C-alpha cells in the first residue's frame, strides 16, 4: 500500500468517525420522528436528540455515593469503543488505516467491551435496578455475540478472510453473492441480533418509563448530566455502526474502494452520503416495524435469539456446502 | 331489631336494611351466619359517639337485595372486640384500619400490625377519635417496617417507589426475587392518607359533595353517586326514576372512558404504542363527550343531591360508532400474536382466591366471580339491557376482555337509558335538611372499578357526623400480590395495570 493511499485512508476513516459521531443522534431523531408520525403524533423533530445532549452536557456531573472508578470510566469506555468501531468498520471506505484491526472478531469484542463496561458500572451502583439491568443485558449479550460472529463468519467464507473490508470488497466484485442463501440467512440472523444489541422492540423498549421492564435503560438509571450524554451518544453511535455494518455487508454499493488515492478521496463525499441514506432508510424501517410490534415476554427473548443463532449456523453450514 | 325500608317510588328497586344490635360475644356467630347466607362484608365503620365507641358491620347479599348491619357498642376505656379475621379476610383488614384510626383492638387478630398509620406515626394517638386533638410530634416509635425477607441462594430484593418514574400515585413495592421470578411481593400503601373521612364531618351534605367527587380523580361519578344515595336514604329524600336513569348514564360514561384508557395502557405496557395511540384517540372523543354532557371532562358536577344534570344527551349514533371503533382496535390487539402472548396466562387470579379476598369489579369478574352492584344492588332497574360479562381464566387477558365486553354493554345501556330522556337539571333536594333525630344511610354503586359503598350518619341539624367510604381498591389490593405469585418481574407493570387499583381511593 502506497503512502498516499494510507493518507487518503486516514482522511476517509476520520470522515467516517465524524459522520457517525455527528449523524447518530440524527438517526435516533429520524427513528423517533417516524414512530411519532406513524402513531399520529407531531413528534419533536429530528434535532431533538442533539438538543437533549446539549442540555445534558451543560449540567453538572453527579455520581451516586459509594460508586467507584468503574462507574465513572464506563461512559468513557463505551464512547471510546463506539468511536473506534466507527473508525474501523467499513462505512465509507474499505481502506481504513486501521484495516488490520477491522477483523470481525475485533469489532464484536470491541462492542462487547462497551457493553460489559456499562454492565459493571451498573453493578457498581449497587442498586436493585442496576443489578437487574446488568443481569438481563448479560443474558442478551451472551446470546447475541455468538450470532454476530457466526453470521459474519458465514459471509467471510466466500471472501476467504474475516477482515470486514475484505468481505465488503469481495461482495462488491461478486454482487450476485448477496442473493445467495448464505447471505440471506446471515442477513436475517444479523438483523435480529442488531435489534437485540441496540435494545429495540421486541427485545427492549427504549421509550418506556417502567423500570422493572427495562434492560439497557435500567443499567444507566443512575447516570446524569454529561455522563448520561456520553452514554446516550455512544448508544446512538453503536446503533449507527451496527446498522451501517448490516447495510454495507449486504449492500456495499457506494462505498469508496478506488485504487488510487485521488479517486478514493473524490468518491468520499458520495460514499458518505450514500451511507447516510442507507442507514436512515434502515433506521426508518426499523422504527416503522417497531410501531407494529409489541415487546416480547422476557423469557421469549432467548427463544428469538436462539432462532437467529440457528439461522446464522445454517448460513455457515450453507457457505461450505454451497460454495 | 329495627327495620328500615328505604322510601322510594313503586317503580324504583326496593331494598331493606336490617339493623341488628349485637354484643361482642355474639359477633363471631352473627358474622358466620351472615357469611353462610351468601352475604359479603361491604363496609366496616367505627364511630366515636359521646358515650361509646360504636362499630357498624355492613353485610350485603344479592337477589333479593339485602343489607344487614351489625351494630356493636364498646366501652371507650377498653375498646376490645373479638376479631373475625379468621372468618373473613376483608373484615380482618377493616379491623386493622379501625385499630389504627380509632384504637379499637381486635382480639386474637392474626396480623395485628399497623395498616393505615405508617410507622412514624405516634403510638396511642388515634386521629379519627373526636378527642384526638392536633397531631403530636412524629418520631420513629415502631422502627423500620418489618418486611418479610425471603432468604435463600440467589434471592434478592427490588424496592420500587413510593416515587415512581411515571405520573402515578405513590405506593411502595418490595419484590423478593430469584432470577426474574417473583417469590413474594409486599405492596405498601397509605402514603396519601389525607384524613378524608374526617374532612366530611361537620359539613352539610351539599358542602361535602365536592369532597365525595374528589375521593379518586377517575371515579368522580361513582363516589359522588354513592354519597348522594347514602345521604338520600338517611334523609328519606325521594328521587324520581328519571333522575336515577340520568345518573346511570353518567355512571356508564365514566366506565367507558376509564375502560378505554386501561385498554390503551395495557397495550402500551407491552410496548405496542400505536394501539395505545388509537385508544387514546377514542378516549379523547369520550372525554369531549363528557364535557358536552356535564361541562366537565371528568364528569364532575353531573350528580347532585336528590338530582342530576345533563346538558345534552350522548348521541346514540356517535356512541355506537365509537363502540365499533373500540371493538376494531380490541380485535387488532388480541389478533396480534405477541400482544396476545403477553396477556394470556399472565398472573392468573384463581376463582377461589378472588372469592376469599372479596375481590370486586372487573378483577372479580375476570376470575369467574359474578358480582355487579348494578344487578345485585340496583338504584335503577337496568333490565333487560344489562349484561354482566364474566370470564374465568383470571389472567391479564381475562381482565382485558372483561373491560372490552363491558364497554359494549355500557354503550347498549346508555343508548337504552337515553331513549326518550330529556336533558336538563332535575333535583328534589329540599332547601332545609333539618329532620328529627340522627339518621344513617347507605349508598352502593357499581363504579367502573367495582362496588363502591358509602355509609353516612347525619346529626339532627343535618350535618354529617360520620362518612365511611369504601373504594373497591381496598378489597382488590391484596389480590395483586396473590396473582403475581410466580410471575416474572418484567411482567409486573402489565399486571399492575390490568388491576389498575386506586391509591387515593384506598388511602383516603
Provide a brief overview of the structure.
The complex is a heterodimer of chains A (323) and B (508). Chain A has 323 residues and is mostly helical. Chain A has eleven helices and no strands.
Question: If you had to describe this structure to a student in words, what would you say it looks like?
Answer:
The complex is a heterodimer of chains A (323) and B (508). Chain A contains 11 helices and no strands. Chain A has one domain. Chain A is 71% helix and 0% strand. The model of chain A has no long low-confidence stretch (mean pLDDT 88). Chain A has 323 residues and is an all-alpha fold. Chain B is of the alpha+beta class and 508 residues long. Chain B has 2 domains: 106 residues, NADH:ubiquinone oxidoreductase Nqo5 subunit (Beta Polymerase, domain 2), CATH 3.30.460; 275 residues, Cytochrome-c3 Hydrogenase, chain B, CATH 1.10.645. Chain B has 17 helices and 16 strands. Chain B has a 5-stranded mixed β-sheet with strand order 1-2-5-4-3, with helices on one face. A 3-stranded antiparallel β-sheet of chain B has the order 8-9-10. In chain B, helix 6 runs antiparallel to helix 7 and helix 6 runs antiparallel to helix 13. The two termini of chain B are 32 Å apart. Chains A and B meet through helix 5 of A and strand 8, helix 7 and helix 9 of B.
Amino acid at each position: 500500500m502506497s503512502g498516499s493511499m494510507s493518507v487518503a485512508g486516514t482522511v476517509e476513516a476520520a470522515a467516517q468517525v465524524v459522520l457517525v459521531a455527528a449523524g447518530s443522534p440524527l438517526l435516533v431523531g429520524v427513528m423517533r420522528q417516524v414512530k411519532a408520525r406513524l402513531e399520529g403524533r407531531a413528534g419533536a423533530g429530528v434535532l431533538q436528540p442533539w438538543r437533549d445532549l446539549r442540555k445534558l452536557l451543560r449540567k453538572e456531573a453527579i455520581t451516586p455515593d459509594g460508586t467507584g472508578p468503574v462507574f465513572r470510566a464506563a461512559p468513557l469506555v463505551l464512547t471510546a469503543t463506539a468511536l473506534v468501531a466507527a473508525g474501523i468498520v467499513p462505512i465509507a471506505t474499505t481502506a481504513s488505516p486501521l484495516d488490520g484491526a477491522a477483523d470481525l472478531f475485533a469489532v464484536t469484542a470491541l462492542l462487547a467491551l462497551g457493553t460489559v463496561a456499562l454492565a459493571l458500572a451498573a453493578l457498581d451502583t449497587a442498586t436493585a435496578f442496576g443489578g437487574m439491568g446488568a443481569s438481563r443485558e448479560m443474558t442478551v449479550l451472551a446470546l447475541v455475540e455468538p450470532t454476530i460472529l457466526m453470521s459474519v463468519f458465514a459471509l467471510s467464507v466466500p471472501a476467504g478472510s474475516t477482515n470486514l473490508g475484505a468481505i465488503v470488497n469481495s461482495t462488491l466484485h461478486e454482487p450476485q453473492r448477496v442473493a445467495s442463501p448464505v447471505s440471506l440467512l446471515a442477513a436475517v440472523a444479523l438483523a435480529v441480533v442488531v435489534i437485540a444489541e441496540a435494545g429495540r422492540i421486541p427485545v427492549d423498549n427504549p421509550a418506556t418509563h417502567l423500570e422493572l421492564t427495562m434492560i439497557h435503560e435500567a443499567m444507566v438509571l443512575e447516570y446524569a448530566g454529561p455522563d448520561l450524554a456520553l452514554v446516550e451518544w455512544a448508544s446512538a453511535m453503536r446503533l449507527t455502526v451496527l446498522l451501517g455494518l448490516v447495510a454495507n455487508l449486504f449492500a456495499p454499493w457506494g462505498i469508496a474502494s478506488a485504487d488510487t488515492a485521488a479517486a478514493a478521496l473524490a468518491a468520499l463525499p458520495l460514499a458518505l452520503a450514500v451511507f447516510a441514506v442507507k442507514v436512515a432508510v434502515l433506521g426508518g424501517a426499523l422504527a416503522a416495524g417497531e410501531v407494529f410490534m409489541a415487546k416480547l415476554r422476557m423469557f421469549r427473548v432467548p427463544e428469538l435469539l436462539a432462532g437467529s443463532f440457528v439461522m446464522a449456523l445454517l448460513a455457515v453450514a450453507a457457505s461450505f456446502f454451497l460454495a | 331489631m329495627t327495620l328500615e325500608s328505604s322510601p322510594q317510588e313503586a317503580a324504583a328497586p326496593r331494598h331493606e336494611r336490617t339493623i341488628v344490635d349485637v354484643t361482642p360475644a355474639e359477633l363471631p356467630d352473627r358474622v358466620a351466619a351472615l357469611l353462610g347466607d351468601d352475604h359479603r362484608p361491604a363496609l366496616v365503620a367505627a364511630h366515636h359517639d359521646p358515650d361509646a365507641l360504636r362499630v357498624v358491620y355492613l353485610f350485603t347479599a344479592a337477589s333479593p337485595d339485602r343489607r344487614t348491619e351489625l351494630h356493636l357498642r364498646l366501652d371507650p376505656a377498653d375498646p376490645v372486640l373479638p376479631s373475625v379475621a379468621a372468618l373473613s379476610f376483608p373484615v380482618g383488614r377493616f379491623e386493622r384500619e379501625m385499630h389504627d384510626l380509632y384504637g379499637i383492638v381486635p382480639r386474637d387478630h392474626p396480623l395485628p400490625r399497623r395498616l393505615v398509620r405508617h410507622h412514624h406515626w405516634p403510638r396511642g394517638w388515634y386521629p379519627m377519635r373526636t378527642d384526638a386533638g392536633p397531631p403530636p410530634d412524629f418520631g420513629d416509635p415502631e422502627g423500620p417496617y418489618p418486611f418479610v425477607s425471603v432468604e435463600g441462594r440467589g434471592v434478592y430484593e427490588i424496592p420500587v417507589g413510593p416515587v415512581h418514574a411515571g405520573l402515578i400515585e405513590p405506593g411502595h413495592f418490595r419484590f423478593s426475587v430469584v432470577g426474574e421470578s417473583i417469590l413474594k411481593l409486599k405492596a405498601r400503601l397509605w402514603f396519601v392518607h389525607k384524613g378524608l373521612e374526617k374532612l366530611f364531618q361537620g359539613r352539610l351534605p351539599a358542602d361535602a359533595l365536592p369532597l365525595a367527587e374528589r375521593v379518586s380523580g377517575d371515579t368522580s361519578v361513582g363516589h359522588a353517586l354513592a354519597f348522594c344515595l347514602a345521604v338520600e336514604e338517611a334523609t328519606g329524600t325521594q328521587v324520581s326514576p328519571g333522575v336515577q336513569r340520568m345518573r346511570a348514564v353518567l355512571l356508564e360514561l365514566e366506565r367507558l372512558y376509564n375502560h378505554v384508557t386501561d385498554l390503551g395502557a395495557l397495550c402500551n405496557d407491552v410496548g405496542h404504542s400505536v394501539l395505545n395511540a388509537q385508544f387514546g384517540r377514542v378516549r379523547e372523543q369520550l372525554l369531549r363527550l363528557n364535557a358536552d354532557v356535564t361541562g366537565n371532562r371528568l364528569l364532575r358536577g353531573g350528580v347532585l343531591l336528590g338530582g342530576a344534570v345533563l346538558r345534552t344527551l350522548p348521541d346514540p349514533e356517535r356512541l355506537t360508532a365509537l363502540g365499533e371503533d373500540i371493538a376494531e382496535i380490541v380485535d387488532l390487539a388480541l389478533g396480534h400474536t405477541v400482544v396476545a402472548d403477553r396477556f394470556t396466562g399472565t398472573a392468573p387470579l384463581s376463582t377461589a382466591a378472588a372469592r376469599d379476598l372479596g375481590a370486586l369489579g372487573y378483577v372479580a369478574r375476570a376470575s369467574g366471580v359474578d358480582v355487579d352492584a348494578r344487578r345485585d344492588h340496583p338504584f335503577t332497574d337496568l333490565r333487560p339491557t344489562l349484561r354482566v360479562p364474566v370470564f374465568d381464566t383470571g389472567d391479564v387477558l381475562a381482565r382485558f376482555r372483561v373491560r372490552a365486553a363491558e364497554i359494549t354493554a355500557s354503550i347498549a345501556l346508555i343508548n337504552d337509558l337515553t331513549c326518550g330522556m330529556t336533558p336538563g337539571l332535575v333535583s328534589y333536594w329540599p332547601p332545609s335538611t333539618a329532620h328529627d333525630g340522627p339518621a344513617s344511610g347507605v349508598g352502593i354503586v357499581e363504579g367502573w372499578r367495582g362496588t363502591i359503598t358509602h355509609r353516612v350518619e347525619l346529626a339532627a341539624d343535618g350535618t354529617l357526623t360520620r362518612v365511611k367510604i369504601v373504594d373497591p381498591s381496598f378489597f382488590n389490593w391484596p389480590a395483586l400480590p396473590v396473582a403475581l405469585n410466580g410471575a416474572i418481574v418484567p411482567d409486573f407493570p402489565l399486571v399492575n395495570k390490568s388491576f389498575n387499583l386506586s391509591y387515593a381511593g384506598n388511602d383516603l
